[in-house]
Automatic annotation (TrEMBL):
<keyword id="KW-0408">Iron</keyword>
<protein>
    <recommendedName>
        <fullName>Catalase</fullName>
        <ecNumber>1.11.1.6</ecNumber>
    </recommendedName>
</protein>
<dbReference type="Pfam" id="PF06628">
    <property type="entry name" value="Catalase-rel"/>
</dbReference>
<dbReference type="InterPro" id="IPR011614">
    <property type="entry name" value="Catalase_core"/>
</dbReference>
<keyword id="KW-0479">Metal-binding</keyword>
<dbReference type="InterPro" id="IPR018028">
    <property type="entry name" value="Catalase"/>
</dbReference>
<dbReference type="Pfam" id="PF00199">
    <property type="entry name" value="Catalase"/>
</dbReference>
<dbReference type="InterPro" id="IPR024712">
    <property type="entry name" value="Catalase_clade2"/>
</dbReference>
<comment type="similarity">
    <text>Belongs to the catalase family. HPII subfamily.</text>
</comment>
<dbReference type="InterPro" id="IPR043156">
    <property type="entry name" value="Catalase_clade2_helical"/>
</dbReference>
<feature type="compositionally biased region" description="Basic and acidic residues">
    <location>
        <begin position="7"/>
        <end position="22"/>
    </location>
</feature>
<dbReference type="InterPro" id="IPR020835">
    <property type="entry name" value="Catalase_sf"/>
</dbReference>
<dbReference type="GO" id="GO:0004096">
    <property type="term" value="F:catalase activity"/>
</dbReference>
<feature type="region of interest" description="Disordered">
    <location>
        <begin position="1"/>
        <end position="26"/>
    </location>
</feature>
<dbReference type="InterPro" id="IPR024708">
    <property type="entry name" value="Catalase_AS"/>
</dbReference>
<keyword id="KW-0349">Heme</keyword>
<keyword id="KW-0560">Oxidoreductase</keyword>
Length: 703
């Protein structure tokens, strides 16, 4: 048989392969390869005697165990990873010389890690939080990392504030509470005196912070970056990831319940999707701004609290990423992968965004304590597929055996090798930018519009989305114990939108303050006009942007959606089979939930098997629910409190519900309005049910 043609996307898999082992058909050994004869007992002085120090097998095993933990990431500790590939649709050579963006035939292997920010490694996936969206491209020219988030802006404008911000959002130091939550005093204390955070606050209080799936959220590079073409011409670029399944979220109450029912909900969803061949797909989009237009907008491209509205600069979709392989080992891959915004390839460069500039220091630095050595790049998951040759030597856990007799450059003794690459040979060359200015610890006056884009976001949301933001703020500030903090935050919200501030204030039983407290983080240059360094608003080019609302996302597919069928003995098998076939054909998945596990008797055909019982399943873990008929089944279910609760919750969380024939009885028993309620299909019609599931949620029911 001909050898399978190696696609470039296999390159990383091939590189990882020699480092893997699975123990199949092998003897158990020590780390020195010695076969172990008894793994059940320590070596003892007599059957009832003390253990012997000389038991090298026991000591090796326990010593390794004692040291198997490494520090978790200071932020983004909780994460899930996947392998895949990226392919550009057409050459981007006009704008960038990056090889992987120039050749549509090239499949570049990637490793992606999605994460929450505030929680520890074992915390719930469904925390209200930003999601990390970090992509490592193993390009032929070296590793390129796009270390982004699922929100396009950030809380602060300057990296020096990052430790303060993280200390404020993390559990409070005296008692380490709360875990994976921003609803506490120190976070909101910080926010209440940080007006620049207002735009990001709108995003984190929106449903974007509680995604339905990691496969159904957008990603953003956040900062403005730079592309450089072969001729050396630069242009500004903002990166977007657009999920092909659309952008969807869960309800806040649902998120809290999922955290109890299945804290691994997102991780499991990603894993299962890949295992079942439903590979997550994201398109890479770019907003390109010519250098000449740098100062054309009423916001600063270097300010990470600002977006470029898509109506102003459209997002051009330039390629697709497919995640098609789960990691073999969580620790070796997902935990040990090390991202760094400073991992660049020729054709891509930074800008002077002061948040990005600080990140360039932090990511390399943090790996030294997290992974323990400057040789972390030798860990298999971090190795580039491009060859590595330099004069860096030694250090803890060095793997490479450098054979050269010289470890310096220039040299003559090794004929100058390894030698510098000319630009024509792919040598990285930093973008030549003229910098003229005074050394100053301060901020540009173009950074002080803290409210216009927060308002743009809020005004672009649907009615339901605005209601969710208000409720989220009421929840979060309701958990704050200090009234002064609540008042200050409501004061900041009043600068964004008065109806928003009033609604939040009403829920908190307070009044909107008339005057804002002066922000404390001002540095004004000696010759600067203080007024220009105060928070203010600048008119934006658009008042609304459709792209900011999830209500406008694609709603034409039910692929990978999970539908619960509530069944009991006596269920109508024709209705079960008919609906199941239609849903599977449309790409959804079905699980039969019954009062007990095992066989469920049917009317009309052989028994069916329950996938879960009402004890372990919960409506919050499904996208929609169907109750087929069959008089006995309906009778049993309508008297089963868990079945009634299941449907009530699905209704409360605005999900599609369908019933067929006697299934209507069960629906009636719940008190859910069976008729005229949006998203409730009472005639068991598969087509109508599929259309309803594709809508994702019927938030109008909340009203
Ligand atoms: Fe990070 N961030 N960050 N961050 N960040 C880390 O690096 C940091 C910021 C992001 O899955 C750390 O290896 C500073 C913005 C992701 O491994 C650390 C500042 C954005 C991940 C760090 C920021 C991000 C991290 C912790 C402000 C979106 C997870 C462990 C100047 C564009 C990557 C690590 C993974 C992780 C520092 C702000 C995204 C400490 C100093 C803005 C997705 O280096």
């Amino acid at each position: 048989m001909a050898k399978k043609k190696t696609t470039l996307s296999d390159k990383k898999a091939e590189q990882l392969a020699p480092h893997t082992e699975d123990g199949a058909d092998q003897f158990l050994t020590t780390n020195q390869g010695v076969r172990i004869n008894d793994n059940q007992n320590t070596l003892k002085a007599g059957e009832r005697g003390p253990s012997l120090l000389e038991d090298f097998i026991m000591r090796e095993k326990i010593t390794h165990f004692d040291h198997e933990r490494i520090p978790e990431r200071i932020v983004h500790a909780r994460g899930s990873g996947a392998h895949g590939y990226f392919q550009v649709y057409e050459s981007m050579a006009e704008y960038t010389k990056a090889g992987f963006l120039n050749d549509p035939a090239r499949r570049t292997p990637v490793f992606v890690r999605f994460s929450t920010v505030a929680g520890s490694r074992g915390s719930t996936d469904l925390a209200r939080d930003v999601r990390g969206f970090a992509v490592k491209f193993y390009t032929d020219e070296g590793n390129y990392d796009l270390v982004g988030n699922n929100m396009p802006v950030f809380f602060i404008q300057d990296a020096v504030k990052f430790p303060d911000f993280v200390h404020a959002v993390k559990p409070e130091p005296q008692h380490e509470m709360p875990q994976a939550a921003s609803a506490h005093d120190t976070f909101w204390d910080f926010i209440s005196i940080m007006p620049e955070s207002m735009h990001m606050i709108m995003w984190v209080m929106s449903d974007r912070a509680i995604p339905r799936s990691l496969r159904m959220m957008e990603g953003f590079g956040v900062h403005t970056f730079r592309w450089i073409n072969e001729a050396g011409k630069g242009c500004f670029v903002k990166f977007h990831w657009k999920p092909l399944l659309g952008v969807h979220s869960v309800a806040w109450e649902e998120a809290q319940q999922i955290s109890g029912k299945d804290p691994d909900f997102h991780r499991r969803d990603l894993w299962n999707a890949i295992e079942s061949g439903n590979f997550p797909e994201f398109e890479l989009g770019v907003q390109l701004v010519p250098e000449e237009d740098e100062h054309k907008y009423p916001f600063d491209l270097l300010d990470p609290t600002k977006i470029i509205p898509e109506e102003v600069v459209p997002v051009k979709r330039i390629g697709k990423m497919v995640l098609d392989r789960n990691p073999d080992n969580f620790f070796a891959e997902t935990e040990q992968v090390a991202f760094h915004p400073g991992h660049l390839v020729p054709g891509i460069d930074f800008t002077n965004d002061p948040l990005l500039q600080g990140r360039l220091f932090s990511y390399l630095d943090t790996q030294l304590s997290r992974l323990g050595s400057p040789n972390f790049h030798e860990i298999p998951i971090n190795r580039p597929v491009a060859p590595v040759h330099n004069n860096q030597r030694d250090g803890h856990m060095r793997q490479t055996i450098n054979r050269s007799g010289t470890a310096y450059e220039p040299n003559t003794m090794s004929a100058g090798c390894p030698f510098q690459a000319k630009m024509a040979d792919g040598g990285f060359h930093s973008y030549t930018e003229r910098i003229d200015g005074q050394k100053i610890r301060g901020r540009s006056k173009s950074f002080f519009d803290h409210f216009s884009q927060a308002a743009l976001f809020y005004h672009s949301q649907s009615e339901a989305e605005q209601r969710h933001i208000i409720n989220a703020l009421r929840f979060e500030l309701g958990k704050v114990t200090n009234t002064d903090i609540r008042i200050r935050v409501v004061g900041l919200l009043s600068e964004v939108d008065m109806t928003l501030a009033s609604a939040v204030a009403e829920g908190l039983g307070i009044k909107v303050p008339e005057k804002l407290e002066e922000p404390i983080n001002r540095s004004i240059p000696a010759d600067g006009d203080p007024a220009q360094y105060q928070p203010h608003t600048v008119k934006q080019p658009v008042e609304k942007s459709a792209a900011l609302s999830m209500a406008n996302t694609v709603k034409d597919t039910i692929k990978t959606r999970i539908v619960a069928f509530l069944v009991a003995d006596g269920v109508n098998s024709t209705e079960v089979t008919g609906m199941k076939e239609a849903l599977l054909k449309a790409g959804a998945q079905v699980q039969l939930i019954a009062p007990h596990l095992g066989s469920v008797k049917t009317v009309g055909s052989s028994d069916v098997q329950a996938d879960q019982s009402l004890l372990t399943a919960a409506s919050v873990l499904f996208d929609a629910v169907f109750v087929p008929g069959g008089a006995d089944s309906a009778n049993l279910l309508q008297q089963h409190p868990d079945a009634i609760r299941f449907i009530n919750e699905a209704y409360r969380h605005c999900k599609a519900i369908a019933v067929a024939s006697e299934g209507l009885q069960v629906l009636k028993a719940t008190g859910v309005p069976p008729k005229e309620a949006p998203g409730v299909v009472i005639n068991g019609q598969a087509k109508a049910f599929i259309t309803a599931i594709a809508q994702h949620r019927f938030w109008e029911r909340e009203g």
